[in-house]
Design brief:
- By secondary structure, the chain is an alpha+beta fold.
- The chain has 23 helices and 22 strands.
- It has four domains: 340 residues, no CATH class; 90 residues, no CATH class; 108 residues, Immunoglobulin-like (Sandwich), CATH 2.60.40.10; 90 residues, Immunoglobulins (Immunoglobulin-like), CATH 2.60.40.
- The strands form five sheets. Strands 15, 17, 18, 20, 21 and 22 form a six-stranded mixed β-sheet that branches. A five-stranded mixed β-sheet has the order 6-13-12-8-9, with no helix packed on it. Strands 2-1-3-4 form a four-stranded mixed β-sheet, with helices on one face.
- The longest helix has 26 residues.
- The termini are far apart.
Length: 718
């Protein structure tokens, strides 16, 4: 008689005994997610003040470049080297639906971030038994300073979408593994497919799914049969990867080969530094102010106890070792989770590893990695004793304070650029909204900066979109090119002079600057005057109608000039210009007009004629241009009265400038108050209350590699 086999039940992944979640768990979920979203909002309030800039409109630029064809735009290269069809589609859809108000887009980023908190907690419910461990994992994710960038940098909505799809993929596969419902399986495949097509290494989601299955299957004795069952159901994943790679190869190419920042290249020193930045960011520390923002609690405490903000980095570094020790201790304590740790470890490696192959590092690169670290922390604390959990309760409080202090004092590269781009709001967007404009021309000596800020180097049509005129032409001119185009300016072809205060340029209607006097008028050859710390001399100019873009020109050489006000300028004179006797013309040049001429007499044994250009002052021997400070906003305050304050934050001093090089230290009197993170201007630096608590005049300047900028005076009145 033939024997019949009993049907083999599909393998189920082992789960904690309290799972699957009960219906009442949703009430706890919503309470925790609401609290987490509110805390995230509190910590990122300053990010909501950031404006649009050119990069926020790159996907719209793709859409316009392809004749407003949605699908052609979606399946086309981004910035010539990236292939991001899902990012492009999602961003275009939200751009079409939402009003072009930066605040609305910040709200969008925050709301979707809150959805990510919800998905992350539902994942932790299926992986972690102990409630404290789950709450700690969510808190660790919510209080991270990474959210400041993902919410404030509008275009980084990409990263939020990427994490959303990753979390949805993991959650759906967990649900399918536990309950074997077809709808969960279909949703898991759809989310995985979309995740693969998000960005250039979105395909690593397949590694996370494989780690999820492996982490729950390897603990079973029948793991071989379990893997055979799963192999059939995971078979569509490599097909998805192959499809993505084939499309990318056909449309863009597999990898960029000639891009300085993104062509894959492994450098151990760069990778080690990125790992250190990643570990520091887990504790909201700032090891590199230009990359990871302002210092946190450690830096604030050190600078206040020792009386100088130069100790801020030291204070941050002192917290780094305890953080690493706590992370290592926690990982060791969680070893009892065994194979379950495979999921978060692969998760972290899969999304952090590809960033080690580039020479670029941004905070938002750590967004998906942060979520994996939160899962790892929760799994480890699930195995930890009461003492370690208590230690993490205290640590989370410190990390939150670190993030709060940092977020209210940071000035990232994207903030510099957004602050610069915001200058178009009143003089252009508000003043000319609804007019039948055909072109807008921006005149500036810092052409590369403004092309990036306002148009993403021609790829992001910010100004046309904000004016609701997609066909509007935008161009950038140097002052030297202006004469050939000045006649084009009219009511439909606007010209804006950026360097002289972002004012409308109208040929023949502006009076040239007037140079009334210079001081000194006579000097001895080879002798300095009004000596500055960098060895240059300071020439004072009394003027009329001077502007922030006005420079003092001596013997045909444009001097580094500090704009004090419309009647006063200070120019730095290199020693090479003072070596040869002679009578040299001095005048003002704002790029558009020149003033009258006065003379600076350099006395010596022999006077050189006015027209003679002494060889010693040939342009080839002049030093490279130093940073130029153009103005302070505000130029002063009353003793103890803050300015440009954010809630709970320090006073913020805005410095209009040119050529601010990364790494330059911003000095307020004899106290360092910040470090320039990128070459954009204006700068915005925090000023501690004790620095303006007493009346006086405090010099503000930049220092880099022994070279100083000109100095401006900040006046604190009684």
């Amino acid at each position: 008689m033939a024997r019949t086999r009993s049907p083999v039940a599909p393998p189920r992944l082992s789960v904690p005994p309290t799972l699957p979640p009960r219906a009442e768990d949703w009430q706890v979920t919503f309470l925790l997610v609401a609290a987490g979203a509110a805390l995230m909002l509190l910590m990122t309030v300053p990010a909501f003040h950031s404006y649009f800039f050119g990069e926020d409109f790159m996907y719209v630029g793709q859409y316009r470049a392809h004749g407003d064809d949605f699908w052609r735009a979606v399946f086309s290269p981004t910035d010539n080297i990236f292939f991001r069809p899902v990012f492009c589609a999602v961003n275009l859809l939200t751009q079409f639906v939402l009003p072009l108000d930066p605040f609305v887009h910040h709200i969008r980023n925050w709301l979707v971030s809150a959805v990510n908190v919800l998905l992350l907690y539902r994942i932790l419910l299926r992986l972690v038994t102990h409630r404290f461990a789950r709450v700690a994992g969510i808190a660790f994710f919510v209080i991270s300073k990474v959210h400041f960038t993902t919410i404030g940098y509008i275009n980084v909505f990409d990263s939020i979408v990427s994490l959303l799809l990753l979390l949805a993929t993991v959650l759906c596969f967990l649900r399918f593994a536990a309950e074997h419902r077809a709808r969960d399986y279909v949703l898991a495949l759809v989310c995985c497919f979309l995740s693969i097509f998000t960005k250039d290494y979105g395909l690593v989601v397949v590694a996370v799914v494989a780690a999820l299955v492996a982490s729950r299957s390897l603990a079973r004795r029948d793991w071989r049969s379990c893997w055979r069952w799963w192999a059939i159901r995971l078979a569509p994943l490599p097909v998805m990867v192959a499809l993505y790679l084939a499309l990318r190869q056909a449309i863009v190419g597999l990898v960029p080969t000639n891009n300085a920042a993104y062509s894959p290249q492994l450098a151990l020193d760069v990778s080690a530094w990125k790992v250190a930045i990643f570990l520091g960011t887990l504790g909201n520390l700032s090891l590199d102010p230009g990359t990871t923002g302002g210092s946190g609690l450690g830096g604030w405490t050190a600078s206040h106890l020792l009386g100088s903000s130069v100790w801020a980095t030291v204070g941050e570094a002192l917290l780094f070792a305890p953080l690493v020790a706590l992370l290592a201790t926690t990982l060791w304590a969680g070893r009892g989770a065994r194979w379950r740790l495979l999921l978060p470890l692969v998760w972290i490696a899969a999304y952090f590893g590809p960033t080690l192959l580039t020479r670029n590092i941004q905070m938002y690169y750590l967004y998906e990695v942060l979520a994996g670290a939160a899962v790892l922390l929760a799994l480890c604390l699930d195995q930890a004793d009461r003492r370690l959990r208590a230690a993490w309760a205290a640590a989370l409080l410190v990390i939150a304070l670190n993030g709060l202090v940092s977020n209210y004092t940071s000035l990232y590269t994207w903030q510099f650029v957004a602050n610069a781009a915001q200058q178009v709001q009143q003089p252009l967007l508000v003043a000319h909204h609804g007019e039948p404009l055909q072109s807008v021309t921006f005149i500036t000596r810092s052409r590369s900066l403004w092309e990036h800020a306002l148009s993403a180097d021609g790829k992001g049509p910010m100004v046309p979109e904000l004016l609701h005129r997609p066909d509007l032409q935008v161009r950038f001119l140097d002052y030297a090119d202006l004469p050939a185009h000045a006649a084009e300016a009219d009511a439909t072809h606007l010209f804006f002079d950026i360097d002289n205060g972002f004012v409308a340029y109208q040929p023949g209607q502006s009076a040239p600057p007037l140079l009334r006097a210079i001081a000194p008028t006579e000097v001895e050859a080879g002798r300095t005057f009004n000596l500055q710390p960098d060895g240059e001399s300071a020439l004072q100019a009394v003027a009329e109608r001077a502007t922030p873009g006005t420079s003092v020109v001596l013997a045909g050489h444009r001097l580094v000039t500090s704009y004090v006000n419309a009647e006063r300028l200070t120019a730095l004179v290199p020693p090479d210009l003072l070596r040869q006797p002679g009578r040299y013309p001095v005048y003002l040049d704002n790029g558009i007009d020149q003033s009258n001429r006065l003379e600076l007499v350099i006395q010596g044994e022999e006077q050189a004629p006015l027209a003679a250009a002494p060889p010693a002052i040939a342009p080839a021997v002049l030093p490279s241009p130093a940073p130029t400070l153009l103005g302070l906003r505000p130029a002063g305050t009353k003793a103890g009265q803050g300015f440009n304050n954010e809630p709970f934050g320090p006073a913020m001093l805005v410095i209009d400038c040119t050529r601010a090089e990364p790494g330059a230290t911003v000095m307020f009197g004899d106290v360092a108050v910040g470090v320039v993170g990128n070459p954009a201007c204006p700068l915005s630096v925090p000023v501690a209350a004790d620095l303006y608590s007493q009346p006086g005049a405090y010099e503000v300047y930049l220092v880099r590699d022994g070279e100083e900028s000109n100095r401006l005076t900040f006046v604190v009145e009684q």
